[in-house]
């Protein structure tokens, strides 16, 4: 910092209290590395006959060489060598000639440089042409001492990289270099002397490593910011990026964009202190540059003020400080209103409803307003964001499915027209979620696959194949859960592994897959009857999502026969869900309470609960929950002694369960059907009895297939028991014995549950 | 003595404090060693070149010398030569980003050579000092601290090493952890350090004991004490000391910017004008002079000119922190908020701990009607000066604007508790309570406010005693404490803006008394005359106001 300000010492450019960072309006200047690139370009244009493949490779090289940070000569030559061996020798020769010659040689090079391009394919406005002209301009503006300095640094550049080779060169060359920088040699020797010296020397080396020109710095920042947004894993690690930013800021404290990137970077590591600091610093700087850059000075200045506050609001929102965010947002709205800035107001409004949603209150009206006004002011992004938010809320409140999907499709058309790839992704992920919520697993799978197989539409794609945005995380989580439902645990672990890689635990969306992973593991442990394994998962789930955690806890307690505790938790949960209008969870809780009633043989008391759950789930189009409820109802009816009705219900629902349900649901439905059939067979006349019983055996066999796929031993035991009984009645002694043996094996293996076989679904 | 005198130019502070020594025990000049004698000619020549700022030339003639002094001068010339070249280089650096990269190329060589000598134990105090400076310039702060401590041990009387050390110490724990030589200079250092760390009381104690120990005439100490008083905003004391200082040392320019700040705060136009003219006569191209003139113009509300002079000060020394902040203030006055923000940001870059700049940023954003945004800056400022009521009041105002009354109340109360400088906190608190219809609390605050205003004796221009009295009158009237009410109403009549209301209230009281039951007045009278018996009134109820000692 100190040196920067000392450099203002003679600064004549300070007017009106503002120091102009960029005095000459040049964003780039000549460095030895740039000369090397120029030499390469020059050689490329002068050597006419060149293999097509070589030329193509070299052409591809030009842009990264221009935009990247300065390389050492060795690195540079190595890269060129990989493309074209002949070229590298020419470039090296030319550079060394220049460096070993006189100042005149460099000047000569710059005078002949434009000639080479005048008749070649490099147009004045092409990337190469612009670069070359910029360099020439920058070179021509150099003063005498600057030219001399440039030449000195070119000599240093050429010989520093070539030191090992130099030893082989004749002695006169050695003299040249030793004259130039005795200090460098001196230091090199001394570095070996003391270890501590060596270390700190390395450190200072590291600091001075990246002398980026403004162009290079801008490119660097843009690239990193893009990666942070789309694929965090490919960006630099937070610590390293911060080092780099500090480096840039040290050389140019007025480089406001670096502060913004530092804000993004510290958000990554959840550092509220530095992120607030950087954000405010950025806007403090921006306010200046905005103020003078625009012709309508006041407008640009006031505008950045508004967005500054808005950004502060988002920052607080991100860290979950809703009250602070609210205050900041109100401030932004007030300023925007005073300035009549409708666009900013729209952004504020969209944040306002987001905030309301985050706080858990109803914001449909706000969102609708936002969409309307956004459409009026032609802000497609905000409008469709609003629509998506509305769809989300509508889905939760049981809006008709056709309307929701229609709305999504309508916005999709607009997204494709405007290439809003981000929104397309969100829309696909949202459709996946909606289908999943409705219990149409096939449709959900299809949508998720659609998203995953989509190519990114981003124009600048820094070799990012798949973005790691929230949409992708959501889709992948759904896929994992869907596969887990079908018992494909190997695939699930693959998906989760990918998720872990794409979204490392410290990142923003990591919680999504963590929860998903835990849920899957919990379900698995519960199906296997390993309750002791499920218990730690409950704690972990509650840490991520308290409602879900409570529900799982109730389930676990119920399975452990601690009914009174379970019912207490369920009641509590019921209240919570009614408050937050979480319909899905409400229905689940109702089902769980009904199951509790069964345990105390209160089948009649379970009925009203189940009926209520049924009406709720039908109202919200939740198909999987509807069929689940129907199964529950059928079971209750069976227990109440009306198997005919029960069988009708089961058969009604069986089709959709087999089509969309999870493996365990399929097995359970079939098991229930078999038991209804058994019960009916008991009451039927003698001649029908045998066929009915055989049908039941058959159904049980089918159910057994599903359960064995899941390796669900408890259920298998039930099935074997029932089958043994049936075979006994049918008189198939051998079959009976086999089944009863299987039953006995499983029974010995499993801890004896207090429940009798019949008392659960 | 040659090398000593060259150092004295480095550290005139030392000379100043030495001047104050009683002259009876001048230490005998140290014997010239053989080496010194051999190098004497070269040293004299080099010294002349050095003083002509031909550093490379000086270094060249000293390259073969072996004595310690010559070695120091040799290295020091090389260092300064590098610095000079660096400054020249910045003018025509290649590009804006490269500007920051211009470095003193000599530093690394110097460091290597010095570290070799250091590990061999061949460095004397001066050379150690130079080594430390080199390390600091290379941003190797930890090592630099070690070397400076060693330098103070080797040569405790060299104030330069102490000063460098002072810049590197950031907190009191660090200060305590260092092992410093036992010497009288150490006391100077500690006092200076305490001032830097805003531990003004300790600093004043140290200076007091130093004055008692025989440095009573030292202008340095007087100026330091004055600055310390300035920091704790004891303006009268500071002004007195500065006046004394100017009598003793009329051509002094150092610290005069602080003096001008004080005069500015007190709006003493003629004194400030006199000071400015005087300083211009002494040396008009000094940072301090420019700051004084800037303050002078600012006081005369010629803000453009003021900003111009602060800019000139910054051209003379871009690291002059005060000027950046003051320039920010000027731009604020000129309503050029963006320039103000830039100026404040520069100040913060020079010194992150500059609370005035943070406070200024907060004020700027408050002017832009962004109270929530300015909260952050005020909080920063408050963090740096936890016991400064101004930040707390500013914070409270922001919270009030955001209708966060609870926080606002806390801020105001805290501002009052830490010793309110502007005496505004209580008034604001009272008004806040008034708005929230917490009449008891409001009355309580007004009472303390009135007592506070009258006890401090001086007349404050923004004092709103009449508002307080008016409210209290109404409050007592509502609570049927008619005697207190009438007392307040009578006091109200002393003020122009509240006279009518006071009279009206008096009429109301007499009307109520005429028709109302006399027994209640008896009761309340008893309460007034025997406050000790008055135990039945609720605790929250404001106690009757004792205005007998009040002399408006």
UniProtKB/TrEMBL annotation, chain A:
Boundaries of every Anaphase-promoting complex subunit domain copy: 259-357, 597-653
Keywords attached to this entry: Cell cycle, Cell division, Cytoplasm, Cytoskeleton, Mitosis, Nucleus, Phosphoprotein, Repeat, TPR repeat, Ubl conjugation pathway
Pfam families registered for this protein in UniProt: ANAPC5, Apc5_N
GO CC, alphabetical: anaphase-promoting complex; spindle
Localization per Swiss-Prot or TrEMBL: Cytoplasm, Cytoskeleton, Spindle; Nucleus
Domain Anaphase-promoting complex subunit 5 N-terminal: start-end pairs: 30-161
Pathway: Protein modification; protein ubiquitination
Superkingdom field: Eukaryota
GO BP term, pick one: protein K11-linked ubiquitination
Membrane-spanning segments: none
Main location per the UniProt record: cytoplasm
Role noted for this protein: Component of the anaphase promoting complex/cyclosome (APC/C), a cell cycle-regulated E3 ubiquitin ligase that controls progression through mitosis and the G1 phase of the cell cycle. The APC/C complex acts by mediating ubiquitination and subsequent degradation of target proteins: it mainly mediates the formation of 'Lys-11'-linked polyubiquitin chains and, to a lower extent, the formation of 'Lys-48'- and 'Lys-63'-linked polyubiquitin chains. The APC/C complex catalyzes assembly of branched 'Lys-11'-/'Lys-48'-linked branched ubiquitin chains on target proteins.
Protein family membership: Belongs to the APC5 family.
Full protein name: Anaphase-promoting complex subunit 5
Automatic annotation (TrEMBL), chain B:
Listed PANTHER family: CELL DIVISION CYCLE 16,23,27, CELL DIVISION CYCLE PROTEIN 23 HOMOLOG
Cell division keyword on record: yes
Pfam families for this protein: ANAPC8, TPR_11, TPR_8
Similarity annotation: Belongs to the APC8/CDC23 family.
Example GO biological process: cell division
Protein name: Cyclosome subunit 8
Lineage of source species: Eukaryota, Metazoa, Chordata, Craniata, Vertebrata
Start and stop residues of the TPR repeats: 287-320, 321-354
Pathway where it operates: Protein modification; protein ubiquitination
SUPFAM superfamilies, per database record: TPR-like (SSF48452)
PROSITE patterns (alphabetical): TPR
Domain of life of the organism encoding this protein: Eukaryota
Transmembrane segment boundaries: none
InterPro entries to which the protein is assigned, alphabetical: APC8, TPR-like_helical_dom_sf, TPR_rpt
């Amino acid at each position: 910092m100190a040196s920067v300000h000392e450099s203002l010492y003679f600064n004549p450019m300070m007017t009106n209290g503002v120091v102009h960072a960029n005095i000459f309006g040049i964003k780039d200047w000549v460095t030895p590395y740039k000369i090397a690139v120029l030499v390469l370009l020059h050689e490329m244009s002068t050597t006419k006959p060149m293999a097509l493949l070589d030329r193509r490779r070299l052409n591809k090289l030009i842009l990264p060489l221009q935009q990247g940070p300065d390389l050492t000569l060795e690195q540079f030559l190595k890269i060129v060598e990989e493309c074209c061996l002949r070229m590298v020798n020419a470039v090296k020769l030319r550079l060394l000639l220049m460096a070993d010659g006189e100042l005149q040689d460099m000047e000569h090079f710059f005078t002949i440089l434009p000639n080479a391009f005048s008749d070649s394919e490099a147009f004045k406005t092409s990337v190469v042409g612009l670069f070359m002209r910029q360099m020439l301009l920058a070179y021509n503006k150099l003063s005498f001492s600057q030219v001399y300095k440039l030449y000195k640094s070119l000599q240093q550049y050429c010989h520093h990289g070539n030191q090992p080779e130099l030893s082989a060169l004749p002695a006169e060359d050695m003299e040249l270099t030793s004259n130039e920088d005795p200090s460098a040699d001196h230091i090199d020797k001394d570095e070996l002397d003391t270890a501590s010296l060596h270390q700190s020397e390395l450190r200072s080396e590291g600091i001075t490593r990246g002398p980026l020109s403004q162009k290079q710095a801008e490119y660097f920042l843009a690239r990193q910011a893009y990666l942070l947004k789309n694929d965090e894993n490919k960006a630099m690690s937070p610590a390293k990026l911060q080092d780099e930013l500090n480096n840039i800021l040290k050389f140019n404290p007025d480089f406001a964009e670096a502060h913004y990137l530092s804000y993004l970077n510290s958000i990554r590591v959840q550092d509220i202190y530095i992120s607030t600091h950087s954000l405010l610093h950025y806007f403090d700087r921006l306010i200046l540059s905005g103020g003078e850059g625009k012709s309508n000075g006041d407008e640009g200045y006031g505008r950045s003020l508004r967005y500054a506050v808005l950004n502060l609001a988002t920052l607080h929102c991100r860290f979950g400080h809703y009250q602070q965010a609210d205050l900041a947002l109100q401030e932004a709205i007030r300023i925007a209103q005073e300035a009549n800035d409708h666009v900013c107001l729209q952004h504020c409004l969209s944040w306002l409803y987001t905030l309301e949603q985050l706080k858990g209150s109803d914001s449909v009206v706000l969102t609708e307003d936002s969409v309307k006004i956004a459409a009026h002011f032609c802000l497609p992004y905000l409008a469709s964001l609003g629509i998506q938010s509305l769809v989300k809320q509508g889905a939760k409140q049981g809006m008709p499915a056709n309307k929701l999907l229609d709305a999504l499709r309508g916005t999709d058309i607009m997204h494709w027209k405007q290439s809003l790839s981000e929104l397309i992704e969100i829309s696909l992920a949202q459709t996946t979620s909606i289908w999943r919520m409705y219990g149409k697993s096939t449709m959900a799978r299809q949508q998720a696959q659609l998203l995953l197989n989509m190519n990114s539409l981003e124009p600048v794609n820094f070799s990012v194949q798949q973005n790691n945005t929230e949409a992708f995380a959501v889709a992948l989580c759904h896929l994992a859960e869907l596969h887990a439902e079908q018992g494909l645990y190997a695939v699930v672990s693959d998906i989760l592994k990918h998720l872990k890689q794409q979204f490392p635990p410290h990142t923003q969306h990591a919680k999504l897959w963590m929860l998903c992973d835990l849920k899957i593991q919990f379900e698995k442990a519960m199906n296997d009857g390993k309750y002791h394994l499920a218990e730690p998962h409950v704690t972990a789930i509650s840490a991520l999502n308290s409602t879900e955690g409570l529900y799982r806890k109730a389930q676990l307690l119920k399975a452990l026969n601690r009914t009174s505790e379970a019912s207490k938790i369920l009641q509590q949960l019921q209240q919570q869900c009614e408050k937050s209008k979480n319909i899905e969870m409400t229905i689940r809780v109702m089902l769980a309470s009904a199951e509790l009633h069964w345990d105390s043989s209160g089948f009649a008391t379970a009925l009203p609960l189940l009926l209520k759950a049924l009406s709720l789930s039908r109202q919200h189009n939740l198909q999987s929950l509807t069929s689940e409820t129907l199964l529950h109802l059928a079971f209750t009816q069976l227990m109440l002694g009306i198997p005919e009705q029960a069988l009708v219900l089961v058969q009604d629902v069986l089709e959709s369960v087999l089509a969309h349900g999870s493996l365990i649901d399929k097995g359970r439905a079939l098991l229930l059907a078999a038991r209804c059939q058994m019960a009916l067979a008991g009451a039927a006349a003698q001649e029908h009895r045998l066929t009915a019983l055989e049908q039941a055996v058959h159904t049980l066999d089918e159910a057994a297939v599903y359960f064995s796929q899941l390796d669900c031993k408890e259920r298998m035991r039930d099935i074997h028991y029932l089958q043994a009984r049936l075979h006994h009645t049918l008189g198939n002694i051998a079959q009976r014995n086999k089944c009863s043996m299987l039953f006995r094996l499983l029974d010995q293996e499993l801890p004896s549950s207090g429940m009798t076989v019949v008392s659960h679904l | 003595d040659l090398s000593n005198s060259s150092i004295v130019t480095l550290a005139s502070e030392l000379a100043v404090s030495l001047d104050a020594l009683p002259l009876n025990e001048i230490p005998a000049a140290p014997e010239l060693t053989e080496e010194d004698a051999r190098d004497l000619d070269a040293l004299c020549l080099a010294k002349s070149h050095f003083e002509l700022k031909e550093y490379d030339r000086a270094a060249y003639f000293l390259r073969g010398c072996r004595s310690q002094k010559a070695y120091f001068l040799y290295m020091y010339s090389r260092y300064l030569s590098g610095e000079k070249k660096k400054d020249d280089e910045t003018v025509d650096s290649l590009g804006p980003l490269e500007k920051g990269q211009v470095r003193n190329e000599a530093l690394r060589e110097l460091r290597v050579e010095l570290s070799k000598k250091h590990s061999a134990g061949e460095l004397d105090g001066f050379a150690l000092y130079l080594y430390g400076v080199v390390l600091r310039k290379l941003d190797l702060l930890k090592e630099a601290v070690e070397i400076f401590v060693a330098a103070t041990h080797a040569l405790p009387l060299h104030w330069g090493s102490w000063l460098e050390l002072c810049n590197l110490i950031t907190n009191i724990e660090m200060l305590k952890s260092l092992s410093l030589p036992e010497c009288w200079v150490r006391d100077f250092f500690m006092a200076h350090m305490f001032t830097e760390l805003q531990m003004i009381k300790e600093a004043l104690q140290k200076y007091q004991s130093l004055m008692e120990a025989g440095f009573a005439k030292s202008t340095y100490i007087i100026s330091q004490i004055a600055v310390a008083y300035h920091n704790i905003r004891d303006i009268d004391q500071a002004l007195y000391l500065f006046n004394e200082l100017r009598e003793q040392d009329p051509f002094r320019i150092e610290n005069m910017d602080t003096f001008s700040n004080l005069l500015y705060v007190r709006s003493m136009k003629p004194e400030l004008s006199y000071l400015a003219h005087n300083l211009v006569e002494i040396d008009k191209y000094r940072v301090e002079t420019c700051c004084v003139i800037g303050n002078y113009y600012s006081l005369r509300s010629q803000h453009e000119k003021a900003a111009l002079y602060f800019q000139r000060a910054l051209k003379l020394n871009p690291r002059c922190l005060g000027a950046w902040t003051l320039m920010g203030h000027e731009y604020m006055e000129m309503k050029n908020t963006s320039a103000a923000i830039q100026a404040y940001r520069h100040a913060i870059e020079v010194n992150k701990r500059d609370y005035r700049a943070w406070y200024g940023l907060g004020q700027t954003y408050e002017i832009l009607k962004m109270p929530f945004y300015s909260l952050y800056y005020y909080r920063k400022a408050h963090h740096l000066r936890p016991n400064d009521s101004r930040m707390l009041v500013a914070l409270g105002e922001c919270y009030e604007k955001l209708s966060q009354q609870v926080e606002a109340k806390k801020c105001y109360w805290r501002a009052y508790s830490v010793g309110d400088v502007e005496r505004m906190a209580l008034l604001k608190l009272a008004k806040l309570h008034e708005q929230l219809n917490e009449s008891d609390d409001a009355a309580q605050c007004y009472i303390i406010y009135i007592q506070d205003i009258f006890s401090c004796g001086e007349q404050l221009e923004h004092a709103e005693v009449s508002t307080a009295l008016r409210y209290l009158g109404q409050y007592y009237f509502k609570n049927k404490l008619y005697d207190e009410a009438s007392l307040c109403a009578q006091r109200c009549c002393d003020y122009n803006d509240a006279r009518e209301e006071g009279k009206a209230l008096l009429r109301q009281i007499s009307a109520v008394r005429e028709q109302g039951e006399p027994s209640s007045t008896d009761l309340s009278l008893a309460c007034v005359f025997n406050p000790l018996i008055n135990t039945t009134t609720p605790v929250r109820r404001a106690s009757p106001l004792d205005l007998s000692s009040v002399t408006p």
